[in-house]
Amino acid sequence: MYKYLLCWRYLRTRYIALASVISVMLGVATMIVVNAVMAGFAEKMRDRLHGILADVIVESFSLDGFYDFEEVMARVLEVAGDDVVALAPTMETPGILKFRVGGESITRPVQIIGVRPRERARTGDFAEFLFGQDGLGIEPSFEVPERLRQQSPAGMRLRELEDQEPDEFTQAMRETLEHHVREQVPDQGAIIGYALGTFHRGNGLPDQYLAPEGTKIGLVFPKAGKRPEAGYDEFTVVGYFKSGMSEYDSTHVYVPLEQLQKSRLLLGPDGRGAVNQIQIKVRPGVDIDVLAERLQAELERLRPMYFRVSTWEQKQGPLLGAVAVEQSILNILLFFIIAVAGFGILAIFSMIVVEKTRDIGIMKALGASTAGIRGIFLAYGLLLGAVGSGVGMVGGLLFVRYINEIERGLSVLLKRKVFDDTIYYFDKIPTLVEPRTLIGIVAGALLIAVLASIWPAQRAARLHPVQALRFE
Amino acid sequence: MTSQIKATGLKKSYRKGKNEVAVLQGVDLEVERGELLAIVGASGSGKSTLLHVLGLLDGPDAGSIRVDGKRIDDAPERDRDAMRNRLFGFIFQSYHLLPELTALENVMMPGLIEHGLLGYWRQRRRLRREAAELLERVGLGHRLEHLPMELSGGEMQRAAVARALAGRPAIVLADEPTGNLDAANGQAVLDLLRDLNRERGLTMILVTHDHNIAQQADRVVRLAEGRIDEMVPSLV
């Protein structure tokens, strides 16, 4: 019993020991905050990555794809019908985007993705990433609105003609202008990546649209065939794709699937086009890795060595892996902070043991055992660790809870934005506190505190009572 | 009458740097139950060492110690801890109270050491009451919640006397209990010990270099050159 009484008293009377608690506290708080923010970012990133890709993707090795995608989809449904929620055939090909801004022509390498927008929207968060020039969400559709035609130079002149008396001249004029409108505003719409169509000025200024709605864009892509030749097609910008992942926002161009099939000469004589991807959305709770393996085996039977089935996580493996590696390295480094705190406890404890030498002798004279004396200092270490990690945990959790308020305060204080939301497109700092991580951090801190007190405790326990009593 | 404590051939030496100093060189000592024995000797004669060896704070190099006919110096560590806790009560020259604890808690210390958390919880009222009674007995009833630094030297030593009795020991070992006190306070502590010796039948061994104090004991022995000489009080 005296152990608990004494270590409680020591805790309340030795303020120097509380100094070592502060370093434990700071270490624990830092680890909690950093882990929460990193986990928050990782979670958001996974969400976005997953939003772009469906759960499971069936691809052909060949870029030119396969015509019998309906059979393949039927086979998929046959194998895993209960687990599948939606399917979307897709044609993806690398290409080049070209459009004019003022007198300049802009050229960008892009990934051209032919989709049926409504089907694609059912397999992921595609629809939630689509925005108009006004920043508001739009329908997943490639329909070119009439107003874009009217706003084109030819369209405006056409409107001027409407007031005039129809005669032979205006009729001819009208036909020419209507022809020009179709040339200036192609019938096929395209949704382009937000970063492709805008210029980010930074410094809190709004992004500038290089390719506003109604801009005519040209796409160059390889045509099907043994000797790839460049194909070319024109589209009208009807919206922007903004997922928050700059890699996608600066390369993706979505166009109607059938139009891409036609332009790439992948429309069969029976009117069926080829696709090189089938995106599959799976019922929640299904193990997608198992499902992907099952589909792979089944499709192998349909056509050997032709299909590759992968989950979205496998497709994003390196990126997700990089985030995980980053987090674990940071954790190792931060854990050194707590280890340093451990050495602080060791040093201060050794000092306290020297200071308490005579008291240790007295307790031994009163019948305290070696183990009992050791217990005092181990319990004291544990108590210091518990106080440090307890306060650190509360502090860390409060910091995480109010991180956005703290960020705003810091921004005002430093007169510049600490967290520039345009870089990540997050309106606030995402955080995620995982109970497992929390328990791990606190347990680690406690363990270090106890480990650091073992040596001083052992020294105290080994003191010879007579020598301890004589110690001045 | 058989003696309660019987030490035979006690030897103890210390290393001081390169030299081996033989402090006890074959001490034979018998103490009767209820006796107040004073051990006198020049400083450095090994009085304290003898007391430490008798009270199991230190082990003898040779010889044996028996209490009530049972050998105690070769007992396992656990038993020796328990004997220090309940068989012996120690009083030191510089009081040796724990500075973080109040007078009451200091007196409760032997009880706190004896009992674990659960045992203490069950007996906390009894332990507290007994400690308070002891402090009352030594005249510190009004100082229960004071820290040692708030007490005078005489008060601290009286608190230490109360602590020595808290484990209900049969034998009290006092190492220069009046050494740090002025004459009046020293005499008060001595009177207290004398009274306790009589009213509780405690065996007491008192180490002192002050012959005035030694005179008040039942019997006085001198420790010189590592051996005991019997003396009668009147001859001191």
Explain this structure.
The complex is a heterodimer of chains A (472) and B (236). Helix content of chain A is 56%, strand content 17%. Chain A is α+β, with helices and mostly antiparallel strands. In chain A, the strands form two sheets. Chain A has a six-stranded mixed barrel. Chain A has a two-stranded antiparallel ribbon with strand order 6-7. The model of chain A has no long low-confidence stretch (mean pLDDT 86). Chain B has 236 residues and is of the alpha/beta class. Helices cover 37% and strands 27% of the residues of chain B. Chain B has seven helices and ten strands. Chain B has helices at residues 47-54, 77-86, 103-114, 117-137, 153-166, 183-200, 211-214, and strands at 5-16, 19-31, 36-40, 62-67, 70-71, 88-91, 171-175, 203-207, 219-224, 227-231. In chain B, the strands form two sheets. Chain B has a six-stranded mixed sheet, sandwiched between helices. In chain B, strands 2-1-4-5 form a four-stranded antiparallel sheet, with helices on one face. In chain B, α3 (103-114) crosses α4 (117-137), α3 (103-114) packs parallel to α5 (153-166) and α4 (117-137) packs across α5. The A-B interface holds A 1-2, 4-6, 9-10, 13, 358-359, 361-370, 372, 464-466, 469 and B 49, 52, 55, 57-58, 77-78, 81-86, 90, 92, 96-101, 105, 109-110, 112-117, 119-120, 163, 167.
